[in-house]
Design brief:
By secondary structure, this protein is mainly alpha-helical. It has helices at residues 5-44, 47-79, 91-103, 110-123, 125-133, 141-147, 154-167, 177-187, 204-209, 250-256, 260-282, 288-299. Helix 2 packs across helix 7. The N and C termini lie far apart (121 Å). 15% of the residues are buried.
């Protein structure tokens, strides 16, 4: 089964986009070398030769801009390939299609030529003739402007040469950099004399009597801004929270709830223990007879 026409156009548009980008990069690199050559001509004073040769740089830049516009139109068609299923050209694609048909023969991109031929086969010869002659004026004005063959004006040539001289730091036209350097020199003092102080320095006694500013010293990391007065509260105040109130938990409250009998038994037991301790610690040492009686009582 043969692939659809829109699918073939889509593949060819991708090839044309990649080729257009490569040619733009190549032209940009060549233009940089040409600008460097123009800078060398301006540096040695060959202004007339630089004015003639700079026209090639201007023509190359215009051609690069044209390729960039055509790349954008190819990307537009690639994004809207769904609209290319119909037999007639969609109004949203008409400007891009006719601009490619009109401008492709004036470029050296073979992939773009093949994409143009596929578009002609898609929409017919009458449509292609209208686009090639721009009968209905649907070709983009920026494409027509960059395809006009006319010499650049003297103002544009001068602007190009000024930009090249500024980029490579060349004094052209002669004497333009001197006023700027003089202005920069005026900012610096002309002599090394020190400026007299308007006030006399403070003595040691005055410094000791002076009160230090309040801002000196350590500050608290936490600061609270006072609230601004409003119609509801004309004199607002900042209320700082006090210490948290500690409440006993469930376990502590369970321990405190004990019966009176338990408290009494515990008190009696503690009293007996205390009495025994008093007898041993605070009383007299028992005699031998008392010890014998205690042993006899224990044996029973």
């Amino acid at each position: 089964m043969a692939p659809s026409t829109s699918l073939v156009i889509k593949v060819q548009l991708k090839l044309a986009i990649s080729r257009l980008r490569m040619v733009q990069q190549k032209d940009t690199a060549i233009a940089k070398q040409q600008r460097r050559a123009m800078a060398q001509l301006l540096e040695v004073g060959k202004e007339e030769s630089a004015r003639i040769r700079v026209e090639n740089i201007i023509r190359s830049d215009i051609s690069t801009e044209l390729l960039e516009v055509l790349e954008l139109y190819c990307e537009l068609l690639l994004a809207r390939t769904g609209l290319m299923e119909a037999k007639e050209c969609d109004p949203g694609l008409e400007e891009a299609v006719k601009s490619i048909i009109y401008a492709a023969p004036r470029t050296e991109i073979k992939e773009l030529h093949q994409a143009r031929q596929l578009l002609i086969d898609k929409y017919g010869k009458e449509f292609a003739l209208e686009a090639a002659n721009n009968v209905d004026g649907k070709v983009a004005e920026r494409v027509l402007k960059r395809l006009r063959v006319e010499p650049p004006g003297q103002e544009l040539v001068t602007l190009y040469l000024r930009e090249i001289a500024r980029t490579y730091e060349i004094d052209w036209p002669k004497g333009e950099k001197k006023p700027e350097e003089e202005e920069n020199d005026d900012d610096e003092p002309s002599s090394g004399q020190a400026v007299k102080s308007l006030e006399e320095p403070l003595t040691t006694n005055e410094l000791t009597r002076a009160t230090p500013p309040r801002e000196l010293g350590p500050r608290s990391p936490v600061s609270v801004a006072p609230p601004s007065p409003s119609t509801d509260n004309l004199s607002p105040r900042v209320k700082l929270p006090g210490p948290p109130e500690l409440k006993p938990g469930s376990k502590m409250s369970g321990l405190r709830k004990r019966t009176p009998s338990t408290d009494a038994n515990s008190d009696a037991h503690s009293g007996d223990v205390g009495a025994g301790k008093k007898d041993i610690l605070g009383g007299k040492i028992p005699d031998v007879d008392e010890l014998a009686k205690r042993f006899a009582a224990l044996k029973r």
